[in-house]
Write a structure and sequence with these properties.
The complex is a heterodimer. Chain A is mainly beta. Chain A is built from 2 helices and 8 strands. Classes of the chains: A mainly beta, B alpha/beta. At the A-B interface, β4, β5 and β6 of A face α4, α5 and β5 of B. Bound molecules: zinc ion (ZN). Zinc ion (ZN) binds next to loops of chain A.
Chain lengths: 145, 397
């Protein structure tokens, strides 16, 4: 099956709360318990205050499209049949901070994408966690109804 | 020269390039040499160009991962190495190495420093196909866990998103990217060894070239090639003592990394790159500014990165780079010729050390039909590892 050939995350245990959250349909990122700075991707120390103390806070799983690319050619195993496909950065507000997360952009023709479009996270359980892709809010709602 | 410049006021305090060398550049069937073999051939040619006995070299800056200092030292038969360092800034390494070499000779610790690079970028392991699952660094872990599972992670797939953002926010047209590709291709027609010589390109050709990772088309992407290039750095005092005919002064060199260094997508201002901080340092140290430059050799892994670097160098305001490169300004005969050898896009992918060689060639007045008339100052940049940047401001003595 094509999907099993795709690259999978390997560092589930490095950032267990993120993967557990994603598998449960929740989007969680690190926040420094000392100064409150939010950070993504996860790191050992807070770059603002150097504290190693961290908590994982839940973000509303919506965001806006910051930028994207449409991949027409790839050498990645498992994706050879997919082009063209859109991958983009989604800006998510969480606990007073802002992070940008990368994921697949779905539910829209690539030619219709625009910076600032509203997106909702779509969780796809794999292995020990879940991938987080993004769908246009309108399309997502249409799918649900 | 202003006495305030970091390049110093006595010849012993001024660093210069006294020799440059290049291997042949090729694609199929490949160089027939190892990475190290290319590095050594480039080093030998640069040392020969400097007109010195290789045993006078006592400094090695190895700007890339393809050879260790020891391998270079042993094969060149160096008697002693009083200064050595290996630089890991990806494609920004060669130009960053000029900063290290200049500091080494200005301090007096090293007399001659060799800076060689080389790789089988075409016939060896293709950089764009590399997806390292062992992930020893934070950045590679991010790519492994958070990029590759979505079918992305190779440099063009990352950088294309920066280009898209720029196009959306500043209205940069696709013809601006095309203008960079065209300038490089036109300049390659004037270079005897450019790999894309005799392959002309029009804007129509550019716009018709297939998408690779939109907004990047095939003609937005650098070529893969095998080859190497090198230079030798010494103080101006040493250059004069040995009678170097045309030493080229490193008026300033600087490197920079934007924060966070390993995560290009989560910088507070996504258009901050290494050059953003490094360029003002170098201009101040050189006592020169963008307006003084006769040319710019800009690391052109992809077309948009040229536009972005021109902005961060201060040739134009951020967001204005697209309009800046259009209309022939960056072509020979324009106000700021860029990549007068054809660049990585159309000359060869010698990791940007070919840009240094071309800058020296121009400042020696030896660029033939591609000569920028009267060129006495120029700038060369490096770019790598998600926006790490480096630049060197070069001038005639
Ligand atoms: Zn903190």
């Amino acid at each position: 099956m094509t999907t099993t050939e795709r690259p999978r995350p390997a560092g589930y245990d490095d950032h267990r709360p993120f993967w557990d959250g994603a598998a449960a349909g929740r989007l969680v990122v690190q926040r420094c318990t000392q100064c409150g700075a939010v950070r993504w991707p996860p790191r050992i120390l807070c770059g603002a205050c150097l504290s190693p103390e961290v908590e994982w806070v839940e973000a509303t799983p919506t965001g806006s499209l910051f930028t994207w690319t449409v991949i027409h050619h790839t050498t990645l195993a498992g994706f050879k049949d997919d082009p063209p496909y859109a991958v983009g950065l989604v800006e998510v507000t969480v606990a007073g901070g802002l992070v940008r997360m990368l994921g697949g952009i779905r539910g829209c023709a690539p030619s219709e994408l625009q910076v600032g479009m509203a997106l909702r996270a779509q969780f796809e359980v794999v292995d020990d966690g879940a991938l987080v892709n993004w769908v246009l809010v309108g399309d997502d709602e249409r799918q649900e109804t | 020269m202003s006495p305030a410049t970091g390049a110093g006021t006595s010849p012993g305090d001024i660093a210069c390039i006294v020799g440059v060398g290049e291997t042949d550049h090729c694609r199929a069937p490949g160089s027939g040499l190892s990475n190290l073999g290319l590095i050594l051939q480039a080093a030998r040619r640069a040392v020969a160009d400097a007109g010195i006995d290789v045993r006078q070299v006592n400094g090695v800056v190895a700007p890339y991962l393809n050879a260790s200092v020891e391998e270079i030292e042993d094969n060149l038969g160096l008697r002693r190495v009083d200064y050595s360092v290996q630089i890991n800034m990806g494609g920004a390494s060669p130009v960053a190495s000029l900063m290290h070499a200049a500091m080494a000779v200005r301090s007096g610790r090293a007399k001659f420093v060799v800076v060689p690079i080389g790789w089988n970028g075409y016939s060896g392991v293709r950089a764009r196909e590399t997806s390292d699952r062992s992930a020893p660094t934070t950045f590679r872990k991010v790519v492994r866990d958070y990029y590759l599972p979505y079918g992305t992670g190779a440099p063009p797939q990352v950088y294309a998103q920066m280009a898209r953002r720029h196009m959306q926010v500043f209205g940069t047209p696709e013809e601006a990217l095309g203008s960079v590709a065209l300038a490089c291709r036109r300049h390659a027609q004037l270079h005897p060894h450019a790999l894309m010589r005799d392959r002309t390109m029009t804007m129509e050709d550019y716009l018709a070239s297939p998408w690779i990772v939109a907004p990047y088309r095939r003609f937005d992407c650098c070529i893969d090639s095998d080859g190497g290039a090198a230079c030798v750095v010494a103080s101006l005092e040493t250059a004069r003592r040995i009678g170097t005919p045309q030493p080229i002064v490193i008026a300033a060199a600087a490197e920079g990394r934007a924060a966070p260094g390993s995560e290009i997508f989560n910088r507070p201002d996504v258009f901050d790159i290494g050059l953003t901080a490094a360029a003002p340092l170098a201009w101040e140290e050189a006592g020169l500014g963008p307006e003084d430059m006769a040319f710019a050799q800009i690391y052109d892994c992809f077309t948009f990165e040229v536009i972005q670097q021109l902005e961060e160098l201060g040739f134009c305001a951020r967001g204005e780079g697209g309009r800046f490169v259009m209309g022939g300004r960056i072509e020979l005969g324009g106000a700021l010729p860029v990549n007068t050898h054809g660049g990585l896009l159309s000359h060869a992918h010698a990791l940007g050390m070919n840009h240094v060689v071309e800058a020296v060639r121009q400042l020696r007045g030896a660029a033939g039909v591609a000569q920028v008339e009267g060129a006495s100052t120029g700038v060369v940049t490096g770019w790598g590892d998600m926006g790490d940047g480096s630049l060197a401001v070069l001038r005639r003595p």
